[in-house]
Amino acid sequence: MKLRKLGTSDIEVSEISLGSWLTYSGGVEREQARACVEAAFEAGINFIDTANVYGQGAAETLLGEVLARRERSSYVLATKVYFPMSGTDRGLSSAQIHKQIDASLERLGTDYVDLYQCHRYDEDTPLEETMQALAEVVSEGKARHIGFSEWPAARISESLALDIAPRWVSSQPQYSMLWRAPEAEVIPLCEREGISQIVWSPLGQGVLSGKYRPGQAPPGDSRAASESMSGFIDRLMSEPVLEAVQRLEPVAREAGLTMVQMALAWVLRQDNVASAIVGASRPEQVRDNAAASGIVLSDDTLAAIDAALGDVVVR
């Protein structure tokens, strides 16, 4: 497993990281989740990403239990704040940031997180208030560094101009062969500012694995077939997208890779991407994902990918 530096920080994260969005927030049983986390460490993954809202605290609680026996300095832990945790608890106000970091740390069973991220931009809270609160969380030792997820480029620029909090070290956008929107503005801006990408959904919710076939029902054990984990996959299950993904199979075969490894290597071709976050419900998935680290795709393979996907790509 290769490591990459996270922004301007002194943290090195594994190129493949383990997420907990749909899986460990309720979609996967506790022992399965424990097995996946153990497989991740065995494969050299050192970066675990979660959020307070995943299962309304369930993912953080599970990870706290699973990680309790490990030396805290042996892994990099990230969580997030913004989405509603109750009828009144939401957003990035000073009160919420302080309340939610304390709750997250209690569930995670730790004194600090390595990375505290704003899960979305809060249009209802002054940016100055948010940045000041983040500065306080860092100064109190509850977070080593800060990041954001899915912030528009204009808001990123505004926050940098304020110079209130420590510098951002990470951006967490959706990014994959199928979803390339960050390439337009966010990645170029972050490259200039020393902010790394840690990307979510690099496998397009599993669609880029090739397991979903046009005109066929999804496999019974897949995310698309799960009531608890299929909420965001519908738009990726259109016939044109599935047909395009099938055209990737001979490309991967020619490169000597699995579809998953090729998709992860594709996002990691970007120097600005520090890590690709994957979800896993079985240890063997973790191992297959981890095997993508260090793979370099040839120019011919990259061109073949673009030709296969054609106009289903979102830019």
List the helices and strands and how they pair.
Elements: E1 3-5, E2 12-14, E3 16-18, H1 23-27, H2 30-42, E4 47-49, H3 58-67, E5 76-81, H4 94-108, E6 113-118, H5 127-139, E7 143-148, H6 153-162, E8 168-171, H7 186-193, E9 196-199, H8 239-246, H9 249-255, H10 259-268, E10 273-278, H11 283-290, H12 299-309
Parallel strand pairs: 3-10, 4-5, 5-6, 6-7, 7-8, 8-9, 9-10
Antiparallel strand pairs: 1-2
Describe this structure in words.
Helix 5 links the parallel strand 6 and strand 7. The chain is 37% helix and 14% strand. By secondary structure, it is of the alpha/beta class. The strands form two sheets. Strands 3-10-9-8-7-6-5-4 form an eight-stranded parallel sheet, covered by helices on one side. The longest helix has 15 residues, at 94-108. The protein has one domain (3-207, 270-296): TIM Barrel (Alpha-Beta Barrel).
General form: globular
Order of helices and strands: EEEHHEHEHEHEHEHEHHHEHH
Which strands sit side by side, in order, in the main sheet?
Answer: 3-10-9-8-7-6-5-4
Distance between the termini: 30 Å
Strand tally is: 10
Low-confidence spans: pLDDT under 50, at least 5 residues?
A: 220-231
CATH homology superfamily: NADP-dependent oxidoreductase domain
